[in-house]
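Structure ticket #2291
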Amino acid sequence: MFDFAQVPLFALADRRFAWIDQRQQVLAQNLANADTPGWRARDLKPFQALLAAPPVALAATDPAHLPGTVNAATDEAAAATAERAPDGNGVALDHEMMKVADSDMAHAVTTELTRTWLGMFRTAIGR
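Resolution: structure written out below.
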């Protein structure tokens, strides 16, 4: 039996599907808490940022090594400028629904690409 997880394209599609699933869960929590006082809308980092991130943390093997830096200012600035309801809730239903639609579109595109790649494999083996 052929293990498609060994093919980089399928492994990438699998990671994309896992990211989309996690994002849908986060967005569903935002929508479910749209009336919860003080709730802050959450989202995952873009998939491209996940791919650009190093797979493991770097180890400091010498005390003279400089620590890495994280640019959290961008996330904090976005959170600070988000609109808030008088009760402190930061969920904007229209924005959340646009994110849900974006995730749905990403799922459809990834599914179609996977289907196309499988078709190319079938053509290559003569099926």
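Closing remark: The helical segments are 8-32, 47-52, 73-81, 93-125.
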